[in-house]
Amino acid sequence: MNEALSALGALAQETRLEAFRTLIRAGQSGLPAGDIAQRLGVGPTVMSFHLTELSRAGLIGSRREGRSIIYTASFARIGALLDYLIEDCCLGACGTRATNPKESCCEADAR
Amino acid sequence: MNEALSALGALAQETRLEAFRTLIRAGQSGLPAGDIAQRLGVGPTVMSFHLTELSRAGLIGSRREGRSIIYTASFARIGALLDYLIEDCCLGACGTRATNPKESCCEADAR
DNA sequence: TTCATATTTCTATATTTATAGATATATAGG
DNA sequence: CCTATATATCTATAAATATAGAAATATGAA
């Protein structure tokens, strides 16, 4: 139901978070499943499982190229998650944080 | 180890995400555990479990006030998560999205 | 067609996480 | 001190998620 929830769930796992970061850095050309698996040091079965999870959340896409399946990060999807978090979970008050940290509401905390 | 990972895990659950959003909207004054439970329609045991999870991730804090325990959202912590996602998971390209969506990289996928 | 490669799917198992009742702790008021 | 309220902790169980080997599928090359 909630798309942000499934995106959060997909990223809330070490191997998947690393895989996603790797794909973001790889850009639009993406990377074959085997390459990602090798970089992260996991077996093909486990890699496939986690890539499927990320796909189900819409955070990555894939295309076949020869024998390989190339995965690519969805910048739109992570952008939408950021929008949600900024607007619904920080009331917009943290929206400028990355570009202008000094003026952020987030320096002072309520604890 | 990774603080972002535990924050993501804490938010990746419906009851907890709703509880956190409720606390963000409540602001600095916060809300008693029972109030949050009533709003979300969950029992006290389950509420306590999820509030403990959010606390462990540093996303909320608490103080006792009479018989109640008042929980408050940590704007600093959600801000730090946003920073991480923007910088490490979107390469900064989605950082201005909330304030200036038109110029975002995220409109077209795969920047 | 046969073989090797890349990846997924199937299956079983282990681990983690969530739910909920009973009980315990802390506080406030009579 | 006794009682009610607010919440947490303990315990058991259920449900979801992760790991990993074996087998299946798809492709490309000899």
Task: Report on this structure.
The structure is a homodimer of 111-residue chains. By secondary structure, chain A is an alpha+beta fold. Helix content of chain A is 52%, strand content 13%. Chain A has a three-stranded antiparallel β-sheet with strand order 1-3-2. The radius of gyration of chain A is 16 Å and the shape is elongated. Chain A binds a DNA duplex (30 and 30 nucleotides) through residues 13, 15, 32-34, 37, 42-53, 64, 66-69.
How does the SSE layout of this entry go?
The structure is a homodimer of 111-residue chains.
Chain A: H1 3-11, H2 14-26, E1 31-32, H3 33-40, H4 44-56, E2 60-65, E3 68-73, H5 75-89
Antiparallel strand pairs in A: 1-3, 2-3
Helix pairs in contact in A: 1-4, 1-5, 2-4, 3-4
The structure holds a DNA duplex (30 and 30 nucleotides).
